[in-house]
C-alpha cells in the first residue's frame, strides 16, 4: 500500500503526497484491522499531527473491541470515548476514573473554540452520577456548578447555550442563590461572548482539513500561515483580560494547534520557543526547541537559535560561546580539538586568531594561529586576505609582502584576482612609486593569461592613474571624466565585436556610471559590455518628423491679449499681427466673445475645421441685441436676424452633416468654402443647405 505515496517524475517517492494519503486512508476503512494497521502506522509516521488519522485508527480497534491495542494508541493520544467505555462497568471506581479523564482532557483542549460539546458531555456525565446521600448530592451539585462556571467564560461556539443551561441549573437549585451567582457571572459571560465573535473571525480563515506538509510556497499555504499568525497574535493580546496563567495557557494551546498544521515551518517553532522564553518559561522553550529539531533535523537556523538559548543559561560548548561563557582558555581547548576535524575550514582559524588578538591581546598567539593555518589553507584566497589584514594591523609591511608573494606563487591565475587586487592596493597605499608600478605591471601580466584579449590587458590606461590616486569615496577626476573613460575603454575592447549602428549609439549602450560606485575604479575592473538582451535603435535610419500640415498665421501676442485673442488669430480672423484684434473684439457681442473664450488655445498649425465646427455645435450661444448692434460676423455665425429668444440648438440642423462631409472627403470631392447666409450655405458645416424632407 505504501506505493500509493509515490509520485512525481522519475518515480521519486513523495511521502507528503496529500492525495495519495487520502486514498490510503479511505482504503483502510474497508480493510480488516490487521491489514489496515500498517497503513495507519505509515500515515501517522508521515503526518504525526493529523488528528483525523489518529481518530480513524483508534476507532478501527474499538470496533473490534481490542482494548489492549487501543490502550497502546492512547498512550500516544488521549480519547474520552474509550475511557468511558472501559470504565463504565467498573462502578464507582470507574466513574471516578472517567471524571479524572474529563478533567485531564479539558485541561488541554478546554479553551478550544469547538470544545463546547466536551463541556456539555462532562456536565451531563456529572449530573448522571448516582447520589445516595444528601452530602453526595450536594457535592455533585457543587461539581456541576464549577464546571458550568468554567465553561461559560470560555469563548466557544456553544457559550450561549451553556449560559442558558447554567441559568436553568441555578434556578432549579435555589432561586435566591441563583440571583447572586448569575449576576456575578453575567459580565464574565458577556466578555466571553464578545471575544468569541472576534475569535471566530480568525478561526473562519483556517482550513482545519489541511495536512502538515513541508512548505511549497503555494498561495494557499501562505494564506493559512498568515491566518494562524493572526490568530496567535490575537490570543497573545489577551482580549478577554483574564489572568496571566490562563492567558498563557490559551496561547500555548493555539501554538500547539497551529503546529498540527504547520509542523514543518521553522519560524512557527522559533516563535513558539521565544515566546516561552520571554514569558519566563525557559525550560518550556528548551522543550519546544528539542521538539523542533526532532521535527526539522536539517534546520541549521533552529540549531543556532537553540544554541543561543542554551548559552543564555550557561549550557552549551561551541568555540565562540565558550569564549563568552567560560573564557578564552575554554575556547582554546575547543579550537585544538576542532582543527583536527577533517571538516574544519579556515574560518575556525580566523575566529580563534581574532579572539586571541582582540580579546586576549595576544598578538603572538594570533600570529602563530595564522601561520599554522597557512599549511592547510594556502590555496584559499579568503584566508590569505584575512591574514594580510591582520599583518597590516600589526604594521608588519615586510611580512605582508612576503605573504602575498608566497600565495601568488601557488595560486593559479584564475583564483588570484582578489589577492592581486589587495596586493596592488597595499602598494598604492604604503609603497613607493617604483614598487607600486612594478606590482601593477606584474598583476597585468599574470591576469592577462585569463583575459580574452591578453594584449589589451597589458596596456596602461588612465584607469591605472585613477586607481592610484583615489581614496575611499574621493576621486582624482570628475564623474564626467570617469564616464568618458568607461565609454572609451568599452569601445576599444569591443571594437571588433559590434556592428556600426551599435557603435554610433555607443554612449547609450554603455549606460551611466553610478555615482556611489564608479565602474572599475576602486577595484580597477574593466567595464562590462551591455546586456545582449537590450535592443538599441539604429539612429542612422531615423527621419525628421514631417506633419505635412500648412502652418497657420504666426504672430506674437502681447501679454495683455487673453486666450480668446490668440484663438481668434489662430482661426484665421487676424492678419498675421495683433493690429485690429482689439477692434474686432469691441464690435463682437458678449455671447460671441464668451464662445470664443471657450475655444482651446492652440499653438502651431491651424486647427482642423471639423474640430472647430464640433465646438460650435456643442456651444450654447444666446442671440440678441446686447450692447452694440451685432456685426455681420455675428449674423454669419447665427444665420438669422437678431432674436432675443432664439439659440443655436433651437433651430433644426441638417441631418448627418458631418457624415456627409466625411463621405465627400472619401470620394475626393473638394469641400466648398465656408458659406454664408446670403449664398444659401450653412455656416455650421461649410456645406450647401440640404433639405431634410
Describe the structure.
This protein is mostly helical and 693 residues long. The protein is 60% helix and 0% strand. The chain has helices spanning 18-29, 33-46, 51-63, 67-74, 80-87, 91-109, 116-128, 134-151, 159-173, 175-203, 219-236, 244-261, 266-278, 282-295, 300-312, 319-326, 328-338, 346-358, 363-377, 381-393, 397-408, 417-430, 433-447, 454-457, 462-468, 479-493, 500-504, 506-510, 563-570, 581-587, 590-598, 609-618, 632-638, 657-666. α3 (51-63) packs antiparallel against α4, α7 runs antiparallel to α8 and α13 (266-278) packs antiparallel against α14. The protein is flat and about 110 Å long. The two termini are 89 Å apart.
Spell out the blueprint of helices and strands.
Blueprint: H1 18-29, H2 33-46, H3 51-63, H4 67-74, H5 80-87, H6 91-109, H7 116-128, H8 134-151, H9 159-173, H10 175-203, H11 219-236, H12 244-261, H13 266-278, H14 282-295, H15 300-312, H16 319-326, H17 328-338, H18 346-358, H19 363-377, H20 381-393, H21 397-408, H22 417-430, H23 433-447, H24 454-457, H25 462-468, H26 479-493, H27 500-504, H28 506-510, H29 563-570, H30 581-587, H31 590-598, H32 609-618, H33 632-638, H34 657-666
Helix pairs in contact: 1-2, 2-3, 3-4, 5-6, 7-8, 8-9, 9-10, 11-12, 13-14, 14-15, 16-17, 17-18, 18-19, 19-20, 20-21, 21-22, 22-23, 29-31
